[in-house]
Design goal:
The structure is a single chain. With 417 residues, the protein is an alpha+beta fold. It is built from 9 helices and 15 strands. The strands form 4 sheets. Strands 5, 6, 7, 8, 9, 11 and 15 form a 7-stranded mixed β-sheet that branches. A 3-stranded mixed β-sheet has the order 1-2-10, with helices on one face. A hairpin with a 4-residue loop joins strand 12 and strand 13. Helix 2 runs parallel beside helix 5, helix 2 runs antiparallel to helix 8 and helix 5 crosses helix 9. The C terminus is likely disordered.
């Protein structure tokens, strides 16, 4: 054991006097030998996989988290500290999901009604030690385009946020009804915003906390930028409900359907799906799991949106010939321009303008990469890599099993739009 060195750093946070403070992003920890490591000289190390979480596939329900003296340590390090029991705290019942838009972050976080919890930049942590980042997906236009159908969608993270983008999903139509095709596009949009969070928003959060962190714990440093994603979607409740339980179902090639089995092995429900719907469901599940692997848990909130319902109605009642003529009119809106009312303030400071320009370049580059990838998929079908990913998921979650005769069937409920 190395001799104990005197601690020369800042032991507690300046604002609250805490050893570990999720608000100030300050955490100084002592090991089992009583040594306090200076952030500049040593770290309590941890592996990246210690941040991984289990994907839940559920509607939003704020969960309590470990909260107390040993918050700054990883679960592995906590077990080495004798006699230290962490305290579990929740944030209480949440009904209206109050949000706070941080202009510096360009992101919206959950806050607690009647308090300043969640407003401290760049932490935005609630009393349970967690931060919840709000995102909204708004499909606002469906249209036919040559042999594909398209959905223009807003990914919205806050008023006037530079992280807001517009994205157009393109899919080949399948042989089912109009509602199913439009649902496929909405599911594809949800999957795409999850990829956007993984590729862009995580990078943004990392940058925001770098200059504020003061800790001798790698685990605390990793948790400081992580968040839980709360995604608002206008997807109909029956389809969203199926989407969130699809990971528990098995896929049967003969029936071309996801099936649910009861305790004795009989098939109790059958959910017929087309190949396109199956592909979108598998892609969605993998996107949620990819975020969970890096420590981002995703929650969902079903929220009807008049822009989406109006767009669906317009698509259904638009004559195909007129729709084709409208498609020939150039779309003058830039790829990631949002509502003109959300245009950036021209009077912001030079620092904010520079940050905005950097983020705009990151977003623009991401859009170009996704557009090229999508074009390749539409021209050549699903890529070999994605097909391989789908097969890997099937082998893990959907083993082939012979269904017993006399199975009952239960189709998906009708749309409630």
């Amino acid at each position: 054991m190395k001799p104990m060195q005197p601690f020369r750093g800042r032991l507690v946070c300046e604002q609250h006097g805490f050893l570990t403070c999720t608000t100030c992003l300050h955490s100084i920890n002592t090991d089992r030998y009583g040594r306090t490591l200076d952030p500049d000289e040593g770290w309590f190390t941890c592996d990246e996989n210690e941040h991984s979480v289990e994907p839940r596939f559920e509607l939003f329900n704020p969960n309590p988290a470990l909260y107390g003296f040993c918050d700054g340590l990883s679960p592995k390090e906590r077990k080495l500290l004798p006699g230290v029991e962490p305290v579990t705290r929740g944030i209480g019942p949440v009904d209206d999901l109050p949000g706070y838009y941080c202009e510096t972050c360009g992101l919206t976080y959950m806050t607690v009604a009647g308090s300043e919890a969640g407003m401290a930049h760049p932490s935005h942590a609630l009393p349970n030690g967690q931060r919840y980042l709000f995102a909204e997906i708004i499909p606002h236009r469906f249209r036919r385009n040559l042999n594909n159908i398209e959905c223009a969608t807003y990914f919205r993270f806050g008023t006037k946020s530079v992280m807001n983008i517009g994205y157009t999903c393109k899919l080949p139509p399948d042989s089912t009804d109009v509602d199913t095709n439009l649902d496929n596009l909405e599911i594809a949009g949800i999957t795409k915003i999850l990829h956007y969070v993984n590729d862009v928003i995580i990078h943004r959060r990392r940058e925001l906390v770098e200059d504020f962190l003061y800790t001798n714990s790698q685990y605390f440093a990793g948790q400081a930028w992580r968040f839980q994603l709360v995604l608002w979607t206008p997807l109909s409740k029956p389809v969203l409900s199926f989407l969130l339980r699809a990971h528990t179902l098995k896929y049967n090639e003969k029936r071309k359907a996801f099936v649910k089995k009861n305790a004795v092995g009989f098939t109790s429900k059958i959910y017929p799906v087309t190949e396109e719907r199956r592909y979108q469901v598998v892609s969605f599940i993998r996107a949620v799991k990819q975020l969970a692997e890096v420590g981002i848990r995703v929650h969902f909130v079903a929220k009807a949106d008049f822009r989406c319902s109006d767009a669906r109605a317009a698509f259904k009642h638009q004559p195909p010939d007129l729709q084709h003529a409208l498609n020939m009119v150039p779309d003058l809106q830039h790829a990631h321009d949002i509502d003109p009312q959300e245009a950036p303030d021209p009077n912001v400071g030079q620092h904010n303008r520079t940050q905005r320009e950097i983020q705009e370049k990151i977003v623009e580059q991401w859009l170009k990469e996704q557009s090229a990838k999508e074009h390749e998929q539409l021209s050549e079908g699903h890529s070999a890599e994605e097909q391989s990913s789908e097969e890997e998921w099937r082998e893990e979650q959907l083993p082939e099993e012979a269904l017993l005769e006399g199975d009952s069937s239960d189709n998906l409920p009708n749309h409630d739009r």
